[in-house]
Amino acid sequence: MTPESHPCALSRREFLGFAAGAGLVLSSLTTLSGLADLSGTAAFAAEGPVFAMPPLPYAENALEPYISARTISFHYGKHTKAYYDNANELLKAVNPAPTSLEAVFLAAGKDPAALALFNNAAQACNHTFYWKGLTPGGPKAPTGRLAELITASFGDFEAMKKELAATSVSQFASGWGWLVQDGDRLAVVKTPNAANPLQNGQKPLVTVDVWEHAYYLDYQNRRADYVKAVLDNLVNWDVAAANLG
Ligand code: MN
């Protein structure tokens, strides 16, 4: 599976299909949560990982000096990998195999018995979205339709960045800051832990990981400095524009 075709990169058509697909996956998740017959064989365990972690779209040291290679070696190589490994392990018991990690976490998020699957599948998606949304050399500001929507929704680009920074910094403990598309408008939101705006019908455009593992090696307790560095230097605005529905 190529990064371009990875299910964490959503087309509008895929996004709109979630509502229908989630119910189907939820019914299959009853197997996982012990509500149905567990005697069936794992459908795809012999095939290896169901959802392969996409490679980083740049070298581990490419985001320096803003995010160090050491941070990425842990954050991508250990944390992100663990979310994929854990989600795949939990999905071994689900038959038929789901085709989309988004569908998995949207369904699991509605099933209290599937909390571990929700946390790991959503975090796998959140991290792939985060890594794909950063770049060492992209444009430092959006253009075209995304720029127009930002102006319409926030006044101007700097006002949007200020709100996204403040919202990300204010997330209590672990979580994420997001620029999202919500109907015809853009909005800034934050989510705790593994939660994703798709659960509220909002389409993510940009995210900032504010779990301490994202910045503590480089910035210690200075979360605001990390968030500012990401927003001013690393966000890939071309990817953000491509995320528009
Ligand atoms: Mn993280």
Main features:
245 residues; mainly alpha; 2 domains; three-stranded antiparallel beta sheet; 47% helix; disordered N terminus
Describe the model.
It is a single chain. With 245 residues, this protein is mainly alpha-helical. The chain has 2 domains: 3-132, no CATH class; 144-242, minor pseudopilin epsh fold, CATH 3.55.40.20. The chain is 47% helix and 9% strand. It contains 9 helices and 3 strands, in the order ααααααβββααα. It has helices spanning 12-32, 69-91, 101-108, 115-132, 144-154, 157-170, 216-219, 223-233, 237-242, and strands at 175-182, 185-192, 203-209. It has a 3-stranded antiparallel beta sheet, sandwiched between helices. Helix 1 (12-32) packs across helix 3, helix 2 packs antiparallel against helix 4 and helix 6 (157-170) packs antiparallel against helix 8 (223-233). The radius of gyration is 18 Å and the shape is globular. Residues 75, 79, 127, 209, 211, 213-214 line the site of manganese (II) ion.
Number of helices: 9
Strand order of the largest sheet: 2-1-3
Order of helices and strands: HHHHHHEEEHHH
Shape type:
globular
Strand residue percentage: 5-15%
- Radius of gyration based on Cα positions: 18 Å
Give unreliable regions as ranges.
1-7, 9-28, 30-46
Structural class by secondary-structure content:
mainly alpha
Number of beta strands: 3
Tally of individual domains: 2
What's the helix and strand layout?
Layout: H1 12-32, H2 69-91, H3 101-108, H4 115-132, H5 144-154, H6 157-170, E1 175-182, E2 185-192, E3 203-209, H7 216-219, H8 223-233, H9 237-242
Antiparallel strand pairs: 1-2, 1-3
The structure holds manganese (II) ion.
